[in-house]
Structure prediction request, 305 residues.
Amino acid sequence: RPTRDLLREAERALLRHRTEASAPWVAYNIRIHEETQQRIELRRELRRALDEDQFELHFQPKVDLATGMLVACEALLRWNHPERGRIPPGVFIPIAEQSQLITPIGDWVLRRACRHLRDWRDAGLEPVRVAVAVNVSLVQFQMGDFATRVRDILGEFGVAPQELALEITESVFERESDSLLNQMRELHDMGVRLSLDDFGTGYSSLLYLQRYPFDEIKIDQAFVLHLLDDPFSRHIVETVMMLARALDAEVVAEGIESAAVGEALLAMGCRFGQGFYYSKPLEAEAFRWLLEQRGSLPLTADAAR
Ligand code: C2E
Ligand code: MG
Ligand code: MG
Prediction:
């Protein structure tokens, strides 16, 4: 084969190694080629997706575990691809992060979340304490003006900072920088709630944890899912709750799939949670309907009728 092709393949393998190194070497194979092709295509299509309005936000209730009352919600991004159907965020968010497209996409998510919040408030639907949590990627902090952009967007929709929460994953501690910390402090001082997402899965430093102004820690669903049959998960959940107490942060359990797990968490002192048992992420209209019901979750067959 021409040397040019070989070099290109070596380059692709090298790139792969840089982005997800699990061994000190990587061998080129055709799968790398196909996956690279698919990423390139998705990246190109992501650009179009914003212009052509292919994104949508779904909302998953966060509930008070004692009463099942809806106290907040998490906005989750959905990409309705015209040919490929719905592409999960786990697939396209990493691509958006690598290509900087996450910045305009992240702004879109914030705007759309604030717009929905505005609509619900205008319609008199106010049962939600901290109304909307939006997931943000670290890349969104790279330009250094994220806090300012959040302030602008809140102003644009007349949404109070206290009504917005930002969920950031533990990888925040891997990229420690003054700029990042300052922006987070600025957001926190503004009144925006900061939530540490997927806690327990990544690289966490107790030292950093104390330095960052997190108001909320979300226990990763991996521990919650196995709470009842795995003593280790139970210990982790207990430990996170002690830690949260020391940090004066609230705990939210993710991935509650049964009443039994919700009850166990409550007995362990965890007040808030979300998961398929209470409700799956819903389209904006269905979520709005849920707000109108003002009832407790999960819905009984009667209420859903
Ligand atoms: P996440 O922020 O940890 O969101 C929770 C994920 O768990 C969601 O997956 C949700 O649908 C799922 N989930 C909720 N309850 C349950 C349950 O009881 N059992 C199980 N097995 N799963 C449950 P989803 O919507 O596919 O989102 C995946 C990830 O994509 C999110 O994880 C978040 O990190 C990222 N993501 C979603 N939207 C955005 C966004 O707008 N911006 C950024 N940067 N990332 C986003
Ligand atoms: Mg989240
Ligand atoms: Mg999570």
The mean pLDDT is 91. The chain has twelve helices and ten strands.
